[in-house]
Amino acid sequence: MARPSWDDEMRMAAISTLDSLHWVKGPQGKAFGAEFAAYCQAVQGTPCQSGSVALWGALRLLDIGPGDEVLVPSLTYIATATCVSLVGATPVFVDVEPDHWCVDLASVEAARTPNTRAVIGVHLFGQMCDDALVAWCADHGIAYIEDAAQAHGAVAASGIPAGGVGDVACFSFFPSKNLAVGGEGGMMMTRRSDLAARMDALVNHGRDARLESHELGSNLRMSEVTAAIGRVQLKRLDDWLVRRRGIAARYEQAFSPLSGIRPPLVRPNTEHAWHQYCVLADDPEGLRQALDAQGIDSRVYYATPCHRQQVYASHPQHHQTLPVTDAIAHRLVAIPLFHEMTDGEVQRVIEAMTVALSS
Ligand SMILES: Cc1ncc(COP(=O)(O)O)c(C=O)c1O
Predict the structure, then answer these.
(1) What is the residue with the minimal CA distance to atom 7 of ligand 1?
(2) How far apart are CA 35 and CA 37, in angstroms?
(3) Separation of 109 CA from ligand 1 center, angstroms?
(4) pLDDT value for 90
(5) R_g over Cα of the chain
(6) Cα 77 to averaged position of ligand 1 atoms, centre (Å)
């Protein structure tokens, strides 16, 4: 499903960072944060150990805790919801749009209470949430957190990239992501200068330059080697996005005439980052078996939506129906799309899909 990129410049960046013996708290992490923030048109990026930790940090930065409610889509990776529970607040699950599969504004509006403190907009599969969500949050004095774990390089209709839109944005550098770091990694990003200094402190026990702790934090820092690799990957990101978009365009052309699936729709005037290419399948199991028989891997995202996961067995919404989420979650089949794919591999996937859907 994915193959991370690894080249001589990344190898040299890793080795020279190790040779420097400056393995933590050094110039690489600082530079990676600054460079990625500039790319996202944000004020500051703070590298950390994972996307999950970045989400936890975002909520802490916004002082969200017990008694607070945070609106989250249920159709997402579980970390989007569990970060809310981990700070003692309550995740309130909302539905997604039938066309673009991101947080649905009407569902958000219906779920709002006086305790709603934030919305986490997940740029699902690399597609940015609707800009209207940003405006809605601003109008209601509710914080907007971008879960941009899957959306490095996506661009909203406003022209602002993922990471530069929300109060705080969170990225993951897990190896399958559009940008990776040779291990686990994540980044918190903010466009708010009032949050920047605290963001850096949070990953370092809430300490200031004099090692005085001002708030609860922990050691969530990214190591220098991974930051050095991430900096090289960042230089390649735009080229990789061109490749991802090219493959998606080929898929779109090849799959549009096929019946039994609906290819993904791109929100008008936005740039999709194509972390995943998911089709909405009438018979997901049949499609997956037919692909498997031809040696093509696939996944279903996310077969069990968050509110139906066992960790939320006692959540008041565990048995509640979220109409769109429940109707599509088990039908979204991801097929291989990654920037390292060769033209031959792309063609093999197209042929396998054509065979699978013609039988
Ligand atoms: C939407 C979403 N949010 C959060 C995360 C968590 O990132 P990480 O695996 O780096 O903790 C992921 C990663 O898979 C994700 O896809």
Answers:
(1) 51
(2) 5
(3) 25
(4) 98
(5) 20
(6) 6
Distances (CA, A) of 42 to 25, 34, 59, 161, 337: 22, 9, 18, 9, 28
Q: Give the domain extent around 212.
A: 8-233
Domain check: are 143 and 247 in the same one? no
**pTM, full prediction:** 0.98
Total domains in the fold of the chain: 2
Residue 7 is predicted with a pLDDT of: 97
Residue bearing the CA closest to ligand 1, atom 8: 51
Helix ranges restricted to H, 63-188: 79-86, 105-111, 131-140
Using CB distances shorter than 6 Å, the residues near ligand 1 are 50-52, 76-77, 79-80, 122, 147, 149-150, 172, 174, 186
53-77 residue pLDDT tens: 999 999 999 999 999 999 999 999 9
List the CATH number of the domain containing 206: 3.40.640.10
Query: Which CATH number characterizes residue 266's domain?
Result: 3.90.1150.10
Helix (H, G, I), strand (E, B) or coil at 73: strand
221-278, pLDDT tens digit by residue? 999 999 999 999 999 999 999 999 999 999 999 999 999 999 999 999 999 999 999 9
Q: Which two tokens stand for residue 280?
A: 């909405």
Nearest-atom number in ligand 1 for the CA of 123 is 1
Mean pLDDT of 199-226: 96
